[in-house]
From TrEMBL:
EC number(s) on file: 1.5.1.54
PANTHER family for the chain: METHYLENETETRAHYDROFOLATE REDUCTASE (PTHR45754), METHYLENETETRAHYDROFOLATE REDUCTASE (NADPH) (PTHR45754:SF3)
Cofactor(s) this protein requires: FAD
Catalytic activity line of the entry: (6S)-5-methyl-5,6,7,8-tetrahydrofolate + NAD(+) = (6R)-5,10-methylene-5,6,7,8-tetrahydrofolate + NADH + H(+)
GO cellular component: cytosol
Biological process according to GO: methionine biosynthetic process; tetrahydrofolate interconversion
Lineage summary: Bacteria, Pseudomonadati, Planctomycetota, Planctomycetia, Pirellulales
Domain of life: Bacteria
Family: Belongs to the methylenetetrahydrofolate reductase family.
InterPro entries membership: FAD-linked_oxidoreductase-like, Mehydrof_redctse-like, MTHF_reductase_bac
Record flagged with keyword Oxidoreductase: yes
Name this polypeptide is given: Methylenetetrahydrofolate reductase
GO molecular function: FAD binding; methylenetetrahydrofolate reductase (NADH) activity
Keywords, ordered alphabetically: Amino-acid biosynthesis, FAD, Flavoprotein, Methionine biosynthesis, NAD, Oxidoreductase
Provenance organism: Novipirellula galeiformis
Amino acid sequence: MSLESHFNSSGCAISFELFPPKTEAGIETLMKNVKRLKEFNPTFFTCTYGAGGSTRGTTLDVVEQVKQITGLPVASHLTCVGSTVAQLEDYLDEAQTRGIDYIVALRGDPPKGTETFQAVEGGLRYANELVELIRSRFKNFGILVAGYPEVHQEAVDAKTDLDNLKRKVDAGADVVVTQLFYDNADFYRFRDDCVTAGISVPIVPGILPVTNFKQALRIASMCKAAIPSVLCDAMNATDCEDSQFKIGVDHAREQTIDLIKNDVPGIHYYVLNKSDAAEKLLDGVDLN
């Protein structure tokens, strides 16, 4: 089944994003949560790829194990950071050997301590170049790329950002998954802009439930995502972790229901390797 076909049937396809744990105990806990998340019939799981390729081996270990446990397709993130074309090809070769189905093709953030992205000698500068590499040499992979409802923090303006996204799609991307956002109006505006720009692949919203306000503020600041004042006020009104968890999950649930009503082809959840928030917000939600 092709990647794009998951989003062309009736209903709302869901997927979950993981990150590679640092310890064996962490991997064991993650796999327990993966089994619980599987109960919601996701279409696939993805796993992030550490800065500069620092989790290269662990990322592949995680997605391979997730595929063995769930029997579902899996995707590995891959960035251009710190890698030559030859090294990227080596990674893709290994991913292919291990049965990985899809690649989330990203430029990647500048290394820690630097403000601008610099390609290594013999490397790639942009995500569309990575998409082109995969399409030309590894045709069996489905390819996901990132979109930014509130504009990428390095983009000069929204039009430039959208032009960059179109280059990635024109290079061969199958699906766009968005950066997290907390106001659905931002996503709907972005989706309309994509259609106007001639981007016809599925546009899948990415949702990260706010379960800890300090953590959410840190993550949102990193990707320049705005947290609505109503949600901020509710979170600031309590120091109770359980209360903040409920407020955040309720907001993500409302986002989910509204997105489904507005005909999104799927929703990608950033679950931070846990299952409790996803279980709460998806409980009883009609995805069909």
